[in-house]
Amino acid sequence: MTNSADEDLIIFSNVKKSYDGESYVVRGLNLNIRRGEFLTLLGPSGSGKTTTLMMLAGFETPTSGQIVFEGRQIDSLPPHKRGIGVVFQNYALFPHMSIANNVAFPLRMRGLPRQEIEARVLKALDMIRMKDFAQRMPGQISGGQQQRIALARALVFEPKLVLMDEPLGALDKQLREHMQLEIRHLHADLGITVVYVTHDQSEALTMSDRVGVFNDGVMQQVATPATLYEEPANLFVAQFIGENNAITGVVRSLTPQRCTLETADGTLIHALPGEALVLGGAAALALRPERLRLVGGVNDPEFENTCPATVQELIYHGGHVRLRAKACGHEDILVNIPNTGNISGMHKGDEIVLGWRCEDSRALVASS
Ligand SMILES: Nc1ncnc2c1ncn2[C@@H]1O[C@H](COP(=O)(O)OP(=O)(O)O)[C@@H](O)[C@H]1O
Ligand SMILES: [Mg+2]
User: Fold this and answer.
1) How much is the pLDDT for 80?
2) Residue 121 has pLDDT above 70, yes or no
3) What's the gap in Å between 274 CA and the centre of ligand 2?
4) Whose CA is nearest to atom 20 of ligand 1?
5) Are the beta carbons of 49 and 197 closer than 8 angstroms?
6) By CB distance 3.0 to 4.6 Å, which of 107, 158, 194, 294 could disulfide with 112?
7) Which pLDDT does position 157 carry in this prediction?
8) CB-based contact 180:203 (threshold 8 Å)
9) Residue 65 CA, ligand 2 centroid: distance in Å
10) Residue nearest to atom 7 of ligand 1 (CA)
11) pTM of the shown model
12) Nearest CA to ligand 1 atom 1
């Protein structure tokens, strides 16, 4: 039988955290983490991600509000009683224990039979491609390798919840991408719930079921990667996730279905309306570089929005060409043009026309 309490493994209710008793670094966090999901906390440095994870792990206490884990309030439960696997930035290994014994440690603590411990440790080391290092000491391997061992140690006892704070930051690109896939597969195979922290938006988008975007201690939006990209709740999310052309203007007409912006150079732009827009207020667009097209002329019937533009720069990326153009009163409008073989005729200084559909742009509240 399922009910809503079963689906939510963790519930943060109005959780606030202040370290100095004056300023809050987490401000009124409400967040439900579903059983079995891969949830990533994404945000710039200093936005409160680690603090949130620390409160969940039990290494920090909320200043106010509460955290419920499987229906129990855990604010006062010490870290080792929470049954949570953790991999934090620079989470140190036990220096006097071999790699194999480090990974075996959580299993010994739980009193598993020796044979099972050996099998599980081998499997965990194999997963991170470090089986040959089992008998080394932590001081005899690199920092990146130590972090992989920390990952194996957090996963080896198959905890219900695993917290990871930028665990792949120290690894080179190839290994990082390999580990991203491994962590994803492990998550799927073990049925564990993962709360993952990163400041790398592409890592967040590719790994997560849902992503919570933090800024300045405030959760901006919690949604699937596709929803964050297609329907950003506010300008911060639109700018932080992917690339965006934040063309600014004043709201001149507004219905629940669409709105019109007037840019500084007098261009009228039709867009979907975001939340809390007001007539006469300032707005900026969420408009992705790949949604802009080169069109035949300003009256192209396929596109509600057309705008004369001047080519500033063309950058060849192989599969697509990146065009930087002056348009709608902005110097740096980014356009990604798929490379279908006919782009060689364009040059810096060319006059072109850009077009996009109303539903490919969203007007979001901007500070004027
Ligand atoms: N132990 C601490 N004591 C005082 N201030 C802290 C402490 N840990 C973090 N902070 C401050 O809290 C804010 C949020 O930090 P943190 O949660 O580490 O952010 P993030 O992980 O998103 O980079 C930062 O301004 C940071 O300087
Ligand atoms: Mg951090």
Assistant:
1) 73
2) yes
3) 30
4) 46
5) yes
6) 107
7) 84
8) yes
9) 21
10) 19
11) 0.90
12) 19
